[in-house]
Every structure is written in C-alpha cells, then in structure tokens.
C-alpha cells in the first residue's frame, strides 16, 4: 500500500517552502479552491529550523531566523478572523499584494489592512488601499528584503498577475489561479480570455526550472514543463469542442456543449465549466 499524499500545508500554520516564501493555508476548501487558498508570506532569506543553510543564500543580508521581522503577504484570502490573525502574526506586514479579484483571494483585504496598517497593491485600483498603487507589468518591488517582479498574466481574469521571486534558489513564481497546484484553471469568461490565457502560459513557460507557488494546491517543480502540459490540455480541449460543435451545430447552446464535454462534472463546478466552454467558443469564433 502506497503512502498517502502529504498535505502541503495546515490551516493557521506557517510552513516555509523556499528561501523567501512560506504559506499559511486558509480554511476554505472546496471544489473551486481545492485544499483552500494559499496565503503566501515573503521575507528575506535567513537560517531557520527547517532550512539551516538558507542564510548562505546570495541575497541574504546576514544570518537570522526566518521569517525576518518584516513580511509581505500575497493574497489575504477569505474573511476568516483566525486565518487573518495567523497571517498577521507571521511578522510586521509591510505590504499586501493581490494576484486577482476573486473573493477567495480578496475578501480578507480590508480586515488584514485594519489589523496591520499595511498598504495593499493589486492590478485593479478598487482593491488598493492607502498608498498602494495599482500593479503594472514589469514593476519591481523591494519589500521585507525580498525582490518581487510583477508579471501581467491575464486569462483566468483580466487582472491576473504573477509574482517572480528571482533571488529564490531555484527561482519561484507565485502564480495565483493562472497555474494551480493540480488541475487546470477556469477561464472566467467574459472577463477572462482563452487567448490571453494561452499567451500567459507561453510567457510563464519561459521560466524553465522555476518552482510554482500556486494559490491552490501544493507547489510544483519546473514552471516551463507545467505550462507546456497545460497548453497541450487546452489545445486538445479546443479540438474536442470543434468536433462537438460540428456534430451539434453552430447554434448549439453553451449548456448543451458543456453537457457533452463535462458530462461528469460535479454540480459545484458546473458554472465554472460553462464559463470555460463559453471562453473556448469565443476563442474559436463561434
């Protein structure tokens, strides 16, 4: 009998996964959120009990415990008081970043901002707080001793961004819902676009060897390989949709096509499946 798959994180507990990043898992598991939303905690590399050699990392400013006194939070997660208090307790929160607009990432923004006083930055101005400016593609942020590069990666939503941590070793990329720890993401049509999503996968696929730090599910090795697999899956799905439309007719409804493509989809993700089908039909020009 094989060993059970280890849980990648425990709600309310900070788990370090790289020189610069750790995760606090939110207690909101579900069909769309998998194990729950990963709230990422970023801090300068240092020596900690789990990784005794991280103080020798080239970007470290000396030896010390991890996380350092200052931290950056990526995706506060849901409005859950115990979760947000656990996130705030990881250190002095100097900045809050958001990967995209969905509530399982953003509902806790105002409460975490209230607890910590930290500015909030997101691609959409309505999610920014205090002095936080909207995120732009190519922005370079230095906070809590960590260099963070912003990558615009629309597709899942129009405002989706990823965050590169170039001084992690190997490099890590916080991918939000653009790349999940397992499975493939929903294209939130009409705000999301399959064409944009495929271009974002191509962009992220240039980060060969980078570790994926997703918003849901466990970290994955080699972002390039993951993006290639996701692209292949999407192209195969497009071929399937073309074939189904050919049989049902171009006037077939989204619901009818979803019934055929996702015949066994659980009720809890049916709406997401329909949105993804709508995005595929728009991409194909139907």
Automatic annotation (TrEMBL):
Alphabetized UniProt keyword annotations: Hydrolase
SUPFAM superfamilies to which the protein is assigned, alphabetical: Metallo-hydrolase/oxidoreductase
Region of interest: Disordered: 44-64
Signal peptide: none
Metallo-beta-lactamase domain location: 19-216
Stored InterPro entries: Metallo-B-lactamas (IPR001279), RibonucZ/Hydroxyglut_hydro (IPR036866), Sec-metab_biosynth-thioest (IPR050662), WH-like_DNA-bd_sf (IPR036388)
Domain of life: Bacteria
CDD domains: metallo-hydrolase-like_MBL-fold
Record-annotated membrane-spanning stretches: none
MF term (GO), any: hydrolase activity
Database matches in Pfam families: Lactamase_B
Protein's name according to its UniProt entry: MBL fold metallo-hydrolase
């Amino acid at each position: 009998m094989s060993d059970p798959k280890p849980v990648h994180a425990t709600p309310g507990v900070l788990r370090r996964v790289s020189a610069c990043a750790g995760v606090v898992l939110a207690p909101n598991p579900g069909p769309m959120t998998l194990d729950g939303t990963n709230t990422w905690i970023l801090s300068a590399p240092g020596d900690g009990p789990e990784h005794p050699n991280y103080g020798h990392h080239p970007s470290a400013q000396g030896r010390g415990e991890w996380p350092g006194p200052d931290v950056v939070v990526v995706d506060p997660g849901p409005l859950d008081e115990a979760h947000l208090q656990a996130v705030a307790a990881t250190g002095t929160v100097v900045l809050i970043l958001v990967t995209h607009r969905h509530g399982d990432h953003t509902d806790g923004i105002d409460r975490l901002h209230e607890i910590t006083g930290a500015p909030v930055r997101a691609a959409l101005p309505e999610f920014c707080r205090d002095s936080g400016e909207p995120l732009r593609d190519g922005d370079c942020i230095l906070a809590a001793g960590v260099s963070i590069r912003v990558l615009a990666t629309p597709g899942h939503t129009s405002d989706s961004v990823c965050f590169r941590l170039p001084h992690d070793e190997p490099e890590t990329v916080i991918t939000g819902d653009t790349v999940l720890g397992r499975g493939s993401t929903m294209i939130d049509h009409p705000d999301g676009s399959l064409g944009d999503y495929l271009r974002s996968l191509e962009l992220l696929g240039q980060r060969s060897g980078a570790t994926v730090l997703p918003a849901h599910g466990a970290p994955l090795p080699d972002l390039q390989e993951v993006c290639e697999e996701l692209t292949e899956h999407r192209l195969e799905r497009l071929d399937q949709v073309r074939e189904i439309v050919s049989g049902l007719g171009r006037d077939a409804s989204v619901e009818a096509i979803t019934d055929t493509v996702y015949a066994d989809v659980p009720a809890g993700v049916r709406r997401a499946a329909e949105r993804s089908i709508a995005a595929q039909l728009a991409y194909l020009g139907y």
